[in-house]
Amino acid sequence: MSVLSLILNLSTYIDKTGFHINNTPKGFYDKSVLETLSGGIINFYMNSEYDKNIHPEYINILKFDGTKDDLTKSINLISKLEKDLLLEIIQFSQEKVKDESLKTLHHRILKVI
Predict the structure, then answer these.
(1) Per-residue pLDDT tens for 82-92?
(2) What is the largest CA-CA distance in the chain?
(3) Closest CA to 46 of 72, 21, 66
(4) Gap between the Cα atoms of 39 and 24, Å rounded
(5) 87/82 Cα distance (integer angstroms)
(6) Which of 27, 76, 78, 112 is surrounded by the most beta carbons within 10 Å?
(7) Model pTM greater than 0.90?
(8) CB of 33 within 8 A of CB of 53?
(9) Where along the chain do its domains lie?
(10) What are phi and psi of 91, to 5 degrees?
């Protein structure tokens, strides 16, 4: 399978996802967070390096301390938000990572080819 088809398959898979949980510690910068944010997926995360991509008003809800209990609390809090607020969170993150998605990478590769 070519790199290009892997990128397209991953992008299609991500588009079908409801939310993403990332438990990487500080010092790691996981592309899955950027890609899922770009795809309009709510992210629960613990690494403060992702804070810049999350709406400042909702960091305290989406960021968890790495434990199952804190993640459960975060999921419960986000599930109580109105649809308009969820869309605001998603749109903010999509704007922040718009140049870092797999689709953008795909377009860059095609330009080079």
Answers:
(1) 999 999 999 99
(2) 48
(3) 66
(4) 20
(5) 9
(6) 78
(7) no
(8) yes
(9) 3-112
(10) -65, -40
**Helix (H) / strand (E) containing 65:** none
pLDDT tens digits along 1-26? 555 554 455 555 555 557 889 998 88
**Do 105 and 7 form a contact (C-beta atoms < 8 A)?**
yes
Question: Quick check: 94 and 40 in contact, CB under 8 A?
Answer: yes
Extract the tokens encoding 12.
């299609």
CB contact at 8 A, 88 and 32: no
Q: Which amino acid, residue 91?
A: Q
**Contact between residue 106 and residue 8 where contact means Cβ atoms under 8 Å apart:** yes
Secondary-structure percent of the chain, ordered helix, strand, coil, rounded to 5? 65, 10, 30
User: Structure tokens of 68?
Assistant: 């199952």
Query: In the numeric block, which tokens belong to residue 101?
Result: 């998605």
User: Which residue reads 């500080």 in tokens?
Assistant: 26
CA dihedral in degrees (33, 52, 19, 81; nearest 10)?
180
